[in-house]
Design goal:
CATH topology: Thrombin, subunit H
Strand content: 25-35%
Helix content: under 10%
Shape: globular
Oligomer: single chain
Largest sheet: 6 strands, antiparallel, barrel
Number of helices: 4
CATH class: Mainly Beta
Length: 366
């Protein structure tokens, strides 16, 4: 559905097909990283606790070349989410000027790598007590698992990241994880159900280009989340959220564009889903499946449910469903992956409601 307050012209150009995509060439960065963004690569530690409870760093008496700090009860390393809100589609629309399409940003100082190197699949093998191989099963995979593990070393793949989720930030380790993608200077898009909306002490940590324990761009390339905003509709199609990063990683790493899905694209083998499913490399490496069709879309007001049979499992939630377009050197997201529906297929949520939510985040979060 097209919003009443749309300022740009309707663009329903078909996304790029595989043969055209193959013509794109990888390219090295054309300039160095600007000094203003060098802090984005620093590995800086934050401790969340009241100042009077913290003790200063001291040299360890037990271990050589080591400093230590005693954390008080309830303190944690990192930064908590400060604000979260869910609004109606009408409230979001009235606060912005709607657009069908948003441009992405490809930085000149990040390598351009539409064709990243593929990486080996690292998985655990399950066997019976007699040593027989067990074939694991997940309802979101149809036939053979067609997802490929890739090494994210250049734009745009460095914009997709792993999202660590703390329902209780008093605990040192996250209680879950999902996927997300940069869509603005300090805005990421993910699934709404990944957000622990009702928790009073929670945190999110976004690591773009996560691979085997850290970002391929550097150990300090990550950001905690300060704010989240989503829709208050508990039903399908609106299961999406945008989050504000403490560190504006999109200014240095770039970000995806966004487009309102058009039903004329149905059936075309245009789309890619990328994310960090636990079934692939234990969510330590990203995987993708490219060139599959959206088989059906179901509109619910301004939001669309996008139905497809691309392989996806737990941990892919929040991963971008996206395509490439001619004359645009950035990909554009048309949906965020949500989950599996009654063993029929997988589903993502998009539509103008998704684009509006991204616009809201980019307008309100500087």
């Amino acid at each position: 559905m097209k919003s009443k307050n749309i300022k740009d012209s309707f663009d329903n150009r078909l996304p790029m097909l595989p043969d055209n995509f193959l013509l794109l060439e990888n390219a090295k960065a054309s300039k160095g990283i600007p000094k203003d963004f060098q802090s984005h690569f620093e590995n800086r530690i934050f401790v969340h606790a009241r100042e009077e409870l913290l003790k200063s760093f001291s040299k360890s008496e037990q271990y050589p070349d080591t400093f230590e700090m005693v954390l008080p009860h309830g303190a944690n390393i990192g930064l908590p989410v400060v604000n979260s809100e869910r609004s109606s589609p009408e409230k979001i629309r009235t606060a912005i000027t709607s657009q069908r399409n948003l441009e992405g940003f490809r930085p000149e100082w990040i390598d351009y790598a539409p064709h990243p190197k593929l990486a080996p699949l690292v998985s655990k093998i399950a066997r019976t007590r007699k040593g027989e191989l067990i074939e694991t099963h997940d309802n979101g995979v149809f036939g053979a698992d067609d997802r490929q593990v890739y090494h994210p070393t250049g734009y745009p793949w460095t914009c997709v990241g792993k999202l660590y989720i703390w329902d209780d930030f008093s605990k040192p380790d996250p209680q879950g994880s999902g996927s997300a993608v940069l869509v603005g200077d300090r805005v990421i898009l993910t699934a709404g159900h990944a957000i622990p909306w009702h928790s009073k002490n929670w945190a999110l940590k976004f690591v773009p280009a996560y691979y085997d324990g850290a970002s391929t761009l550097g150990n300090g390339v990550y950001s905690w989340v300060s704010d989240c905003h989503g829709y208050d509709d508990p039903g399908g199609a609106f299961d999406m959220a945008v989050c504000r990063l403490y560190k504006p990683l999109g200014k240095s790493m770039g970000y995806f564009g966004a487009k309102t899905y058009d039903s004329d694209w149905e059936g075309g083998h245009y789309w890619t889903l990328a994310g960090y499913p636990g079934a692939i490399a234990n969510a330590n490496r990203p995987s993708r499946q490219m060139w599959w069709p959206i088989l059906d879309d179901e509109s619910h007001g301004d939001a669309d449910e996008l139905k497809y049979k691309a392989d996806a499992t737990s941990g892919d939630s929040g991963g971008p469903v996206f395509g490439f377009w001619d004359k645009e050197d950035w990909p554009s997201v048309v949906g965020t992956h949500i989950g599996t529906v009654n063993n029929w297929g997988n589903i993502g949520d998009g539509g103008s409601a998704m684009v509006d939510l991204i616009i809201w985040g980019k307008k309100h979060w500087t």
